[in-house]
Design a protein that fits this description.
There is one protein chain. By secondary structure, the protein is mostly helical. Helices cover 52% and strands 6% of the residues. The chain folds into 2 domains: 37 residues; 346 residues, Alpha Horseshoe (Serine Threonine Protein Phosphatase 5, Tetratricopeptide repeat), CATH 1.25.40.390. It contains 19 helices and 6 strands. Strands 1-3 form a two-stranded antiparallel ribbon. The protein starts with a helix and ends in a 10-residue tail after the last helix.
Length: 471
């Protein structure tokens, strides 16, 4: 018997050696590609322990590289594009197997773009945030200040991921570990429970992140966390809390409205609260600029603004002239979003803007209106008029809550179009999606379209997942 045990033992040694050799070859191959092409995202695995500050910063850079991995992914222009198509903001100007299911509200559980660019894009980012948090917790060699900052940053990015997941899918698996044995059988978590956890995570992030601007807001600060926390409070209908967070941001003096709309979306804009700078050498500045701007001055834009949105603008609204552009191709006029002015350019002058002050003013207006705070310096009307003044429009003259809410709905549509799916998520939050989109998207819209389908590929590998109604 001992000789057989030895044979087995040495066979195991040989197998381990072979695996290690294979791993070395793969690493060397990966290193060669690292030199020859753009640096790939730094991979994080479970059980990682950071040996120094630089290794942790490198891991964080890998998360941002994943976020920026190609325009049209969820956090890289994908929400602005696909959710804009799904609502009543934009349309694709030619028939497309990729874009038609979104514009025509005919998504299937097998629709590739929804599976790969949303669910399949976002959960690896969540995994890497979890790995970063675990590595920070297990490491004794990181400086306290950096550990706090990176922890807050990872919680903020993870919260951003879940914020959009619950908006699109409702209950989703809420994964906070790197343990594949847990993650692979995770059922859907109740949305209210997820929002409760996001509230706590963002409160902690606001305490852990610095108040100062870092790298032109290319790295988030406490105000970024407070901005996303305000959105979460609005979903939870905690309007007083949302107003308080917005008050903190506006009164901080760190940000201010840019009164030339053409300069709102540039790097170093005083209005930007959180932006992600582009990485790599693809010459892409902002994902929205790359997506919406045509390839030349005579080319038909791939996406154009809907007539229903165009008709909401009055002729003297400066946003209509600064944030849209019209081209005529083969006798047909197309108007496309032009908030970002750069399609491709190696000189980075624009970035991926996640939260800006214009949204905060309108969010505070809504929070105040929901509390019947309508007039005076701390009223909703004052905030609405602040945004309208920038657009060179006269003040509104609403006299009751219903009229103020109507004004907020209109102003949010005009101010935030083609940005991060705000229009669609607003309609859902107000309980108007089924009614208004049922008219605007007839005959394709169905009540069950308010949620997207869970990808079939995920249902196939996790028997504990269930599908949304209608799919």
């Amino acid at each position: 018997m001992p000789i057989y045990k030895n044979i087995i033992k040495w066979n195991l040694y040989l197998l381990v050696a072979l695996l290690l050799f294979t791993s070395v070859i793969l690493v060397l191959t990966g290193c060669r590609k690292f030199v020859e092409t753009d640096p790939p995202p730094h991979e994080l695995t479970s059980g990682v322990v950071f040996e120094n500050d630089q290794s942790a910063l490198s891991a964080l850079a890998g998360i941002y590289a994943r976020i920026n991995a190609g325009p049209q992914n969820m956090l890289c222009g994908g929400v602005s594009l696909y959710v804009g198509l799904y609502a009543d903001e934009i349309y694709n100007t030619t028939t497309s197997a990729t874009y038609d299911p979104f514009y025509k509200n005919s998504l299937l559980a097998t629709t590739n773009a929804a599976s790969s660019r949303f669910w399949g894009h976002i959960y690896p980012i969540i995994y890497h945030c979890n790995a970063l948090l675990e590595g920070i917790h297990q490491s004794s060699k990181l400086s306290d200040s950096l550990g706090r900052q990176l922890s807050g940053e990872a919680k903020l990015i993870r919260a951003l991921c879940y914020y959009y997941l619950v908006q699109l899918y409702n209950d989703v698996p809420f994964i906070t570990t790197t343990d594949y044995r847990v993650n692979s059988v995770m059922p859907r978590t109740n949305t209210d429970s997820i929002l409760n956890q996001l509230e706590m995570d963002l409160q902690e992030a606001a305490q852990q992140l610095p108040a100062k601007i870092i790298n032109n807001n290319g790295r988030p600060n406490k105000w970024s966390a407070k901005g996303l926390l305000s959105r979460v409070y609005m979903l939870k209908k905690k309007f007083s809390a949302a107003e308080s967070e917005c008050n903190d941001i506006i009164s901080s003096g760190v940000f201010e409205l840019v009164y030339n709309p053409a300069n709102v979306f540039v790097v170093n804009s005083k209005e930007t609260i959180w932006q992600i700078m582009p990485v790599g050498t693809a010459q892409v500045n902002s994902p929205e600029g790359n997506i919406f701007i045509p390839s030349s001055g005579t080319a038909r834009p791939t996406f154009a603004v809907t007539s229903s949105l165009m008709n909401e603008f009055v002729s003297n609204d400066i946003r209509r002239h600064q944030w849209m552009r019209t081209v005529t191709v083969n006798g047909i006029s197309y108007t496309y979003p032009y908030k970002f002015k750069i399609r491709t350019n190696a000189n980075v002058t624009e970035a991926n803007i996640l939260i800006r002050l214009g949204e905060i003013y309108l969010m505070r207006a809504e929070a105040r209106a929901e509390q019947f705070k309508l007039t005076g310096s701390d009223g909703a009307i004052s905030d609405i008029n602040t945004i309208r003044t920038r657009a060179l429009l006269p003040d509104i003259s609403a006299s009751n809550q219903s009229e103020v809410m109507d004004a907020i709905e209109l102003e949010r549509r005009l101010e935030l179009f083609s940005e991060w799916g705000h229009r669609y998520f607003d309609l859902k939050r107000w309980g108007k999606a089924n009614t208004l989109l049922g008219i605007a998207k007839a005959p394709n819209w169905e009540a069950t379209d308010q949620l997207w389908p869970i990808p079939q590929s995920e249902l196939n590998i996790n028997v504990f997942l269930t599908q949304n109604p209608g799919y």
